[in-house]
Amino acid sequence: MRISARADYAVRAAVELAAAGDEASLKAEAIAAAQGIPHKFLEGILGDLRRGGLVVSQRGGKGGYRLARPADSIAIADVIRVADGPLVSVRGVRPPELSYCGPAESLLPLWIAVRANVRKILGEVTLAHVAAAKLPDEVLSLAEDPEAWTNP
Amino acid sequence: MRISARADYAVRAAVELAAAGDEASLKAEAIAAAQGIPHKFLEGILGDLRRGGLVVSQRGGKGGYRLARPADSIAIADVIRVADGPLVSVRGVRPPELSYCGPAESLLPLWIAVRANVRKILGEVTLAHVAAAKLPDEVLSLAEDPEAWTNP
DNA sequence: TAGTATTCCTATCGAATTACTAGGGAACTG
DNA sequence: CAGTTCCCTAGTAATTCGATAGGAATACTA
Description:
The structure is a homodimer of 152-residue chains.
Chain A: E1 2-3, H1 5-19, H2 28-35, H3 39-51, E2 55-58, E3 64-67, H4 76-84, E4 89-90, H5 107-122, H6 127-131, H7 137-144
Antiparallel strand pairs in A: 2-3
Chain B binds a DNA duplex (30 and 30 nucleotides) through α3.
């Protein structure tokens, strides 16, 4: 269960924009330097965010990128979907489109349950939450369990 | 957030073995046909499960694969880890090994919370649960919500 | 108003990983 | 020994990650 580089970079760039304020604009190169992201790769990702309507861009000497909506109205899940496709997929297809046969039939509701649990977190947490380092209590209590940090 | 073909195939093969009974053995070709998995690809996956100690194999005319432990002692998470590496990874590395800087710092506890929520499901559900089509109540109640089946 | 610097935007290329295929060698059964 | 089955190595197509080069649009300056 893997979160791609695209998704991680997209979220970090969006958080950086959120931290700069809803009306400030940042240059791609500045975001890349602040977060250690390959800057030409980041430009492609920012293009996806623009086509997805999450950011607006401006060319020229005083150009850059800024959020298209307030940071507390953009969920992490929104950013991932625009930059990287479906939030959770099995073999590249969304869980409801899967078909299992024989004794594996119960895998379908299992993946649905996993997706629901992921959505519950990534659909609730917004860019504003992360940028202000104030995650919702429900999420914090999950992350505070020491067992959640052990490796396997 | 993507579940690879390896992981999906590995779980389906293990479930098929669980459904056959703890002491019965199945041939790779039979599992491949039952689940529609490319059989040479499946052989590589079964090799990983064997090296990981989850199944035992036998060559020759009456050979095949069978589970190395009772089906109710093998969690779905165990199968995925052996066949496909860490249960959840960001850019190929496990969440505790990530390092974020600046306003993105709260992403680390966020991924930890996501992983904890995924573990809670895949670490609790066993091959026996899936093979018998009797998922734990906690999981079923997540999957029964009609909203969990809608697409974005 | 012309020129220049800055920035976004597109297209292409190589390395690495994923998904899958092919063929032959090793071990077990009857 | 002969037939079956697992087991190992190598090789191919597609995707992802990341780098590079140049073109198009905008803003500042003289």
